[in-house]
Amino acid sequence: MRPLTDRVPKPLLSAGGRPLIAHLIERLACAGLTDLVVNVSHLAVQIERELGDGSRHGARIAYSREEQALETGGGIAYALPLLGEAPFVAVNSDLYSDFDFGRLASRATALGAGALAAHLVLVDNPPHHPEGDFHLREGSVSTDGPPPRLTFSGIGVYSPTLFSGIARGEKRQLAALLKPAMAQGRVSGEHHRGRWMDIGTPQRLAELDQMLTASGSSR
After folding, report:
1. For the whole model, what pTM was predicted?
2. Contacts of 123 (CB under 8 A, 6+ apart)
3. Per residue in 8-41, pLDDT tens?
4. Residue-range definition of the domain harbouring residue 86
5. Which of 64, 119, 202, 205 has the fewest Cβ atoms within 10 Å of its own Cβ atom?
6. Which residue from 86, 219, 99, 98 is spatially nearest to 157, judged by alpha carbons?
């Protein structure tokens, strides 16, 4: 996303006249997910200044401040003291979707009661990622299986135990934790067929901005 992110952190890039992360937080809050932890590192002060305590967006925000970017797995592990001991929802801040986050409450309950380590939301493969990531069959996610492969949306529910082996401050990719759990049959999933965009390039940001502006949508 450079040069856009040289001076502005990616979550604060604007689409439809509002920061990407604001769209996301308000969808979470509307679904009843109001106690949020936001991981910050690059240009963190700007994000904290924009979001504050979250009340303006209908949420309560605590911040997990990383001295250096720890990848997704390491960042979640670093934030565990703020997340607590129950399963939690984690969402990438650089996506836009009409997914109903309220659906994940029952998934979190299932994770807390059983042996599952994670529940992932998968989507159709976008043009920039045609090979996909994982297979979904009868509600179970795996690295191998019959076609088609689907793409991980960046939306998931996780048990804290998935991250228990990571030292606080250690870098770790999320996939490195998920793949062993998948091999053990401990990752469930669902296929979201609605709108989903990974805002990973200036072009896709411009497309989202045009779409939201044309529709007059604020979320």
Report:
1. 0.93
2. 150, 151, 153, 191, 192, 193, 196
3. 889 999 999 999 999 999 999 999 999 999 999 8
4. 8-215
5. 202
6. 86
